[in-house]
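seq:
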Amino acid sequence: MPIIKRLHQPLVEFYESSQEIFLLKHVIPTTLMGVGVYLSSTTGFILVMWGLGAEIHIDLMLKIAFIVGVSSAVGALSFVPNGAGVTEFTNYGMLLALVASSDPTITPSVAAAAALMQGFFHKWFRVLVGMGVAFVYRQRLFTTEFQEELALMEAQKSHGV
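struct:
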């Protein structure tokens, strides 16, 4: 069967590389990094809500953790770059639906402010983490070969090539 012969090698490579990727030595550190990012976003949103006058209690923290997770997923599934606008609207709607009914300080304007501040915190936190990683791993990321290639491209650009 020609189709099976043609697909056999790519499927074997896919299977073998999947086995490597899903080893616990890879899964555990990346999962811990993801949990760290999720907890930092949740903490940031809790601080935003506290700054806007919401009374912080375990019920609110759990609701905020849920809102952060759902809005991040909706933003990712929207296929809008960085979930721009989508995550904020999701945060706003979920704050009104889940939190405003039990907390009178959460008005539509407070929910909008919280959603915008959370979006700002979430996106710029990722930028800062990325800059930190680039700084820590700059020797590995920006090798001399990379610098030489960059200089060559700049020289070609300045000569109009």
